[in-house]
Structure formats: structure tokens, C-alpha cells
Amino acid sequence: MHEDQVMRNEIIQELRTNTGLSIRKIAELLGVNRRVIERLVSKSK
After folding, report:
1. N or C: which end of the chain has fewer CB within 10 A?
2. Which residues contact 32 (CB under 8 A, 6 or more apart)?
3. Where are the domains of the chain?
4. How far is CA 39 from CA 29, 35, in A?
5. Per 3-state DSSP, what percentage of the chain is helix, strand, and coil (rounded to 5)?
6. Contact 16, 41 (CB under 8 A)
7. Which residues lie below 8 Å from residue 9, measured CB to CB, with a gap of 6+?
8. pLDDT digits over 2-12, tens only?
9. pTM above 0.85, yes or no
10. How far apart are alpha carbons 43 and 31 in whole angstroms?
């Protein structure tokens, strides 16, 4: 995994746990596909 992907994943995890943002809003903010975020969030549970 590239450093950029690792950093992106960490940012997504922090946004999800520290804010009330939905998966869809995080996807819009970062310009990332919603499915990518759903996968990351489901892994962390």
C-alpha cells in the first residue's frame, strides 16, 4: 500500500470517529468513492 493510501485511510478513520459526518459526506469532501469508505469503515468494526 502506498503512503498516500495509508494517509487517506487514516484521515477517513479520524473523520468517521471524530465527527458526525456520514460516509457519503466524507466521500464528497475527499473526492473518494463511497464504496472505498464503506469498506474501510466496515474493516475497523
Report:
1. C
2. 8, 12, 26
3. 3-44
4. 17, 6
5. 80, 0, 20
6. yes
7. 40
8. 999 999 999 99
9. no
10. 20
